[in-house]
Amino acid sequence: MNPDFKIIVQEQDIVPILRIYGEIDIYTCPEFSTVLLDIIDKGNKDLILDLNNILYIDSTGLGAIAYSARIIAEKEGQINVICTKTQVKKIFEMSGLSKKNVKLFDKEDSAVKYFSSG
After folding, report:
1. Is the whole-model pTM more than 0.85?
2. Predicted confidence (pLDDT) per residue in 76-88, tens digit
3. Domain count of the chain?
């Protein structure tokens, strides 16, 4: 367990926001996946991932997001990702996730507004 890894879940009226801190890698991914799936199991078809405070994400972390996106796609849901880091955005774009039901945003208010206007 990485002591710098932390997930804070903010239950909002519109959509839950998961704020991730530290590294999402093979060591922290089990906890990350559990939290994502718990949020979905509670009936949420949409969610926001705030990745502005991650230091690193590897293929296991990306895989957890892809798996969650596939589950909520069956419910016509979406994951909005908040991230201003170019290298993290590039990972999403290269993986093809940003062409599916994962949308990238630079600001939290834009990510929230997407759900409130839809």
Report:
1. yes
2. 999 999 999 998 8
3. 1
